[in-house]
């Protein structure tokens, strides 16, 4: 970069260790004699050639160097910003800052900040009319959990190091750039978004950059020079452009957990659709125990389990209605079965053993096993010269069915499949939207939301939020079209149904090939001796106890 273009210099970390003195001199090309220039800057008997802004003390030893809590000029062109606040340059650039390290004490020591400091800074900025965020945020500590959904931070465990208060501040202020330095290593995180996809208006992305010590032995990056146009001067469309590598917001989950701990004990009914998430106000009627004077708190809720079906279910594995001769593999929480009347002989379904209505209802352990099955199927079909397409229709169905259909690699590309879905959706006035790469279905739909969802084996995803009527065979019709499989008769399940013996033979043949895939949840061959007998079972506990004996663990 050109030295003449450098207008401002901000220093993070512990200024009085001398690390950022060297930064100033290197930036400006100024020569320094050993042991002279550093002392002059530390005691402010000299001035800096360009405006230099520093944060406050991070330990008790350096507190005395910052005489004014609200900030002051330490020397010519060297300004201490203060404990917290917003610096607005003449160009319109807005720089929020927070000095010190996190403290749980109230009031906090002079070298620390507390929850009250963060709350007051947030309030002062968020109350500004039309607040959209700040251009830059400067803190000494890293924000806790900044590495969630992102590239690795190396040896730094972002779930344990850093400040939760800084995470909360960054989530609220939405800085375009957030700089920190206390971990003494360089880390540039992938940009993250500040809005919920398909739920909120698009907003600008944020970037977190951590800088290493100046002159560090590993020669890690300690200098970050960049040009920035103030947010207030940017074209709105340009401001909210999302880069290809953008990820989900790393702080959203931790903020939800924090809010839960502060939330009142009363429970509020959930709304059905994520487009209408208003909460009902009002107090709950006190429980019978309270009325009798028993003030003991309720026991903690047990982890959420699957619901019992309201009637006969064709897909609950313990149900007598299940076509058990079509079962290919049984895991701990899910099973794989051939589709009855499938588009192709190897059209399969991934189904939960318990009764779940959709992917967004699944517990974490079931999601994990579904992911294993998807990885195994991808590898299996690739070995056969095919790629898979997966879709789910959470509409007029009571048990989750993930339809997995293989398509020959030489027949069409993943882009062809994607374009076919989008084109036929437009013809039927269905709004099929692409979900960003680092997002998943649980981030765009709430439990109870009717939707249609497509996933390609490249990881690309399409989503439609169903608001009214929806063609039940849409997924099959797209795949059966002339552009893809050219199987018009099979699009509505019109292919000849196989007999029980044929179905069992197909399932056994598929299992033989499928069992060699390393990541597949393992099923013992003994399952095929059990399958005819499964139809006589009635109790879920009997099914699971026998399955545990018969099947090898995944």
UniProtKB/TrEMBL annotation:
Keyword Signal annotated: yes
Molecular function per GO: RNA lariat debranching enzyme activator activity
Keywords: Signal
Residues making up the signal peptide according to the UniProt record: 1-37
Residue span, Cwf19-like C-terminal domain: 304-410
Pfam families per the UniProt record, alphabetical: CwfJ_C_1
CC annotations in GO: post-mRNA release spliceosomal complex
UniProt cross-references to PANTHER family, sorted A to Z: CWF19, CELL CYCLE CONTROL PROTEIN (PTHR12072), CWF19-LIKE PROTEIN 1 (PTHR12072:SF4)
Family the entry assigns: Belongs to the CWF19 family.
Official protein name in the record: CWF19-like protein 1
Species this protein is from: Buteo japonicus
Source species taxonomy: Eukaryota, Metazoa, Chordata, Craniata, Vertebrata
């Amino acid at each position: 970069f050109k030295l003449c273009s450098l207008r401002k210099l901000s220093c993070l970390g512990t200024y009085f260790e001398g690390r950022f003195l060297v930064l100033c001199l290197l930036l400006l090309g100024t020569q320094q004699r050993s042991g002279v220039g550093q002392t002059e800057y530390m005691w402010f008997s000299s001035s800096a050639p360009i405006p230099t802004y520093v944060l406050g003390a991070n330990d008790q030893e350096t507190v005395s160097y910052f005489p004014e809590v609200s900030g002051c000029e330490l020397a010519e062109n060297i300004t201490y910003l203060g404990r917290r606040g917003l610096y607005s340059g003449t160009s319109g650039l807005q720089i929020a800052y927070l000095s010190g390290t996190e403290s749980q004490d109230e009031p906090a020591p002079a070298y620390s900040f507390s929850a009250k400091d963060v709350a007051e800074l947030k309030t002062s900025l968020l109350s500004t009319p039309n607040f959209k965020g700040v251009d830059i945020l400067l803190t000494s500590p890293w924000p806790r959990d900044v590495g969630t959904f992102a590239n690795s931070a190396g040896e730094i465990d972002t779930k344990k190091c850093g400040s939760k208060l800084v995470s909360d501040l960054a989530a609220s202020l939405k800085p375009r750039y957030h700089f920190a330095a206390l971990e003494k290593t360089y880390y540039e995180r992938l940009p993250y978004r500040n809005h919920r996809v398909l739920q909120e208006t698009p907003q600008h992305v944020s970037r977190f950059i951590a800088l290493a010590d100046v002159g560090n032995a590993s020669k890690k990056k300690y200098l970050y020079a960049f040009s920035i146009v103030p947010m207030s001067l940017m074209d709105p469309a340009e401001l909210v452009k999302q880069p290809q590598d953008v990820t989900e917001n790393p702080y959203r989950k931790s903020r939800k957990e924090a809010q839960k701990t502060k939330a009142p004990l009363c429970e509020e009914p959930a709304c059905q659709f994520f487009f209408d998430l208003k909460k009902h106000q009002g107090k709950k009627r006190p429980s019978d125990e309270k009325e009798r004077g028993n003030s003991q708190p309720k026991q903690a809720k047990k982890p959420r389990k699957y619901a019992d079906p309201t009637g006969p279910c064709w897909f609950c594995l313990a149900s007598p209605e299940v076509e058990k001769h079509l079962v290919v593999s049984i895991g701990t929480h899910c099973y794989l079965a051939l589709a009855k009347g499938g588009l192709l002989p190897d059209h399969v379904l991934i189904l939960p053993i318990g009764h779940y209505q959709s992917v967004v209802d699944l517990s974490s352990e079931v999601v994990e096993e579904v992911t294993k099955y998807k990885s195994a199927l991808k590898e299996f079909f690739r070995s056969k010269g095919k790629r898979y397409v997966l879709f789910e229709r959470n509409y007029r169905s009571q048990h989750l069915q993930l339809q997995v259909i293989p398509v020959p690699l030489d027949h069409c590309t993943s882009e062809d499949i994607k374009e076919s879905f989008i084109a036929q959706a437009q013809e039927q006035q269905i709004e099929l939207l692409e979900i960003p790469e680092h997002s998943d279905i649980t981030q765009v739909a709430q439990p109870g939301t009717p939707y249609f969802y497509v996933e390609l084996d490249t990881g690309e995803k399409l989503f439609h939020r169903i608001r009214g009527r929806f063609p039940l065979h849409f997924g099959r019709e797209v795949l059966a079209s002339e552009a893809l499989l050219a199987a018009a008769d099979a699009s509505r399940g019109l292919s000849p149904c196989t007999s029980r013996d044929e179905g069992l033979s197909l399932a056994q043949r598929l299992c033989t090939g499928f069992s060699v895939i390393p990541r597949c949840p393992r099923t013992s061959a003994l399952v095929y001796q059990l399958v005819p007998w499964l139809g006589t079972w009635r109790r879920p506990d009997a099914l699971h106890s026998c399955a545990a004996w018969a099947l090898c663990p995944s």
